């Protein structure tokens, strides 16, 4: 890594409330040589609000493969560049991956300036387990592809999170309700940090009712969070390792044999493995 190289700052921007921008983020955008922004017009509101006059160039999903090498050259010549997207954290369902990847490959320091990220902001207020969770980005657009996805998610034990647009939120919840138990705990975070912020936590059937009956609940931006499926382990908890053993055995032999062998290996009762096997096999 050359001392004369510049640096890439990955700067998170607010997801609705302009006040959610740190002093360090403002200083960074003021002091870099160039800001690479997803939409040069969109970022102007933020820059004007903070009286930032740094030059802005456009880097979006359609030109980033082409622009990234040019920005690398500039940083190799000593320029400091900030990457921003329209809202939230760059690279999280937003452009920037080629530039960050190439920067690492070319020995350029990549420095994050943390700030808002819709999924983390929503999760912090959801009251669902946060010790383990997974993020699924945007779901497929067609109902049949969504249903295939939801069928896989029936086995997901972690809290899972996705982004959804106002055009599809109702259809998406409808598809989900056709496959998931009505009592599945769901949290919808709509327009977070904005004037019309709403966070609703309820059973899936109630959430669907709320969104169906309130046209306002079909507008804006959404993060949807779902509780993980509880694997019924009878009166005894299975460890992750024991579940892993069971999964491997189930992939090789019948449920009966798998549960019997798992019980012999671990000393846990066969019945407990049998119930876990049924839960794992749920479509
Ligand atoms: N990079 C962004 C981030 O860090 O969250 C995400 C960009 S992605 C293109 C935009 C999606 O994020 C929206 O469609 C919505 O699902 C979610 N989102 C962004 N801002 C939001 C907000 N204020 N309230 C709820 N969801 C939001």
What do these coordinates show?
The chain is an alpha/beta fold and 283 residues long. It folds into three domains: 7-116, Cobalt-precorrin-4 Transmethylase, domain 1; 119-226, 2-Layer Sandwich (Methyltransferase, Cobalt-precorrin-4 Transmethylase, Domain 2), CATH 3.30.950.10; 240-281. The chain has eleven helices and ten strands. The strands form two sheets. The chain has a five-stranded parallel β-sheet, with helices on both faces. Strand 6 (133-138), helix 6 (143-153) and strand 7 (159-164) form a beta-alpha-beta unit. The N and C termini lie far apart (51 Å). The site of S-adenosylmethionine has 24 residues, from helix 5, strand 7, strand 8 and strand 10.
CATH T-level topology of the largest domain = Cobalt-precorrin-4 Transmethylase, domain 1
Distinct small-molecule ligands in the complex? S-adenosylmethionine
Q: State the distance separating the first and last CA atoms.
A: 51 Å
- Named at the architecture level, the CATH assignment of the largest domain is 3-Layer(aba) Sandwich
Number of domains: 3
Spans of at least 5 consecutive residues whose pLDDT stays below 50 are none
Q: Find the CATH superfamily of the largest domain.
A: Tetrapyrrole methylase, N-terminal domain
| Strands ordered across the widest β-sheet | 3-2-4-1-5
Helix content: 40-55%
Count of DSSP helices?
11
Q: Roughly what fraction of the amino acids lie in strands?
A: 15-25%
| Record field, number of beta strands | 10
């Amino acid at each position: 890594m050359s001392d004369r190289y510049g640096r890439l700052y990955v700067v998170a921007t607010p997801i609705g409330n302009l006040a959610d921008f740190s002093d360090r983020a403002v200083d960074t955008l003021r002091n870099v040589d160039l800001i690479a922004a997803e939409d040069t017009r969109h970022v102007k509101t933020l820059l004007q609000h903070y009286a930032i006059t740094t030059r802005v160039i456009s880097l979006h999903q359609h030109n980033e493969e082409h622009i990234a090498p040019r920005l690398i050259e500039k940083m190799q010549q000593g320029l400091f560049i900030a990457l921003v997207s329209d809202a939230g954290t760059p690279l999280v369902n937003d452009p920037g991956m080629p530039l960050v990847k190439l920067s690492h490959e070319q020995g350029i320091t990549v420095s994050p300036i943390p700030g808002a990220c819709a999924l983390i902001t929503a999760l912090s207020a959801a009251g669902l387990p946060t010790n383990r969770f997974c993020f699924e980005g945007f779901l497929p657009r067609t109902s049949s592809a969504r249903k295939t996805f939801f069928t896989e998610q029936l086995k997901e034990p972690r809290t899972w999170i996705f982004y959804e647009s106002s055009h599809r939120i109702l259809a998406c919840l409808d598809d989900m309700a056709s496959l998931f138990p009505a009592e599945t705990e769901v949290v919808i975070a709509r327009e977070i940090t904005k004037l019309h912020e709403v966070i609703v936590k309820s059973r899936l059937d109630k959430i669907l009712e709320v969104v169906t009956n309130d046209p306002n609940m079909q507008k804006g931006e959404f993060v949807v969070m779902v509780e993980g499926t509880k694997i019924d382990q009878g009166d005894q908890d299975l460890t992750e390792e024991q579940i892993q053993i069971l999964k491997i055995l189930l992939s090789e032999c019948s449920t009966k044999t798998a549960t019997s062998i798992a019980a012999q290996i671990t000393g846990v009762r066969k019945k407990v493995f049998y119930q876990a096997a049924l839960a794992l096999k749920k479509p």
